[in-house]
Amino acid sequence: MVRKITELEKVLIQKSKPPDEAAYFLKKGVKLSEEKKYAEAIACYDKVIELNPRSKAAWHNKALDSLHLDKYEEALTCYEETIRIDPTHSHSWCGKGVSCIRLKKIPEAVACFEEAVRLDPTDEIARQNKTTALQWQRENRVE
């Protein structure tokens, strides 16, 4: 015989398993980003970071959305944090390179793209960005 769970038992079960707030806010941030609500998404990622400062996904997504809002210094800081957490995250190296390009830090951008390509030789975007940065560096004689 199967017994139905009472409403009180349902409440007690829910309270015994705390919701994963970080996962909730990360998913909410991704959804907001998909809707191009970047500032709201960043607020969600900040909540995730508050709950779990080592969330590579939150730092990386915050960096991406900061780029969308033309907040290049903030994006650079977030990419650096992502790389501190996981130095092998090639997409963060590439994103850091893009941030550096936007901030006119061309030699640093080239180095970032080189690291991204070293970590993932199949990353065509990093390869193309590196070529573009090197060309810009040569044309403008930036050392």
From TrEMBL:
Pfam families: ANAPC3. InterPro entries: TPR-like_helical_dom_sf, TPR_rpt, Ycf3/AcsC/BcsC/TPR_MFPF. TPR repeats lie at residues 22-55, 56-89, 90-123. This is Lipoprotein NlpI. Keywords: Lipoprotein, Repeat, TPR repeat. It comes from the Archaea. The keyword Lipoprotein applies. Transmembrane segments: none annotated.
